[in-house]
TrEMBL record:
Residues 1-27 form the signal peptide. One of its GO terms (molecular function) is lysozyme activity. The lineage of its organism: Eukaryota, Viridiplantae, Streptophyta, Klebsormidiophyceae, Klebsormidiales. GO terms for biological process: defense response to bacterium; killing of cells of another organism. Keywords: Antimicrobial, Bacteriolytic enzyme, Signal. InterPro entries: Lysozyme-like_dom_sf, Lysozyme_dom_sf, Phage_lysozyme-like. PANTHER family: T4-TYPE LYSOZYME 1-RELATED (PTHR37406:SF1). This is Pectinesterase inhibitor domain-containing protein. It comes from Klebsormidium nitens (Green alga).
Amino acid sequence: MASPPMKSLGLVLLALFLLSQAAPAYGARSLARGAVDNLVSNLPSWMMPRSLCIPTVSSWVEKHEGRHRCVYENEQGDKAIGVNYNLEDDRSARKSELKTVLADYEKVLKGEQCLNDVQISALLLADTKRKLDEVAETVHKLDDLCCDIQAVLADLDWSMGQKGLDDSDSFLKETENGNWEDAATALRATIWCVSHKKRCDADVAKIEKGCSKGLNLPDFVHTTYSQQ
């Protein structure tokens, strides 16, 4: 029997994909956003609060990774699709998730099948949740941090990998303690920052702003809750 988190992820993936079957291409993204809005407003307590940051995190990562309809080689040399959805990482999970959005893993991997925007958005949603959970293994106070900082941490995990994030001791310490200026300085001092200057500058800018307004949930989430 599927655990609650995996079962919910499957339902999320299926709900987002089904939207694509009834919507014209130009409306796919706005409908996907509406679906996330509805799903977020009904999240169970065990998914709070980091899952509320998924829209902010996924949007931030996509700005850096881009969106690819067909298979491509990512920075690490692995085959990926969508927003750096790594097809060679945990293949069993990838096969299951692609099947949920009615895509064939082997065909996608071989470049014989591409994905539409809603399929990509659904996979990005699942991947973002997975990345945040991965970051939480290293940053134990992740759920106490605002969405913008969670977005930076997930972005770093996406780019440098969990090991690279684990090795950024000084940066992580200052981030968890809320010392934003020192955290930004520590991040700039990493080898990753030297080799990814543009991406680093964007992440550092978010770090420097810190979490002065608390969780800073996405605007549409605030709107949803203010109407209840």
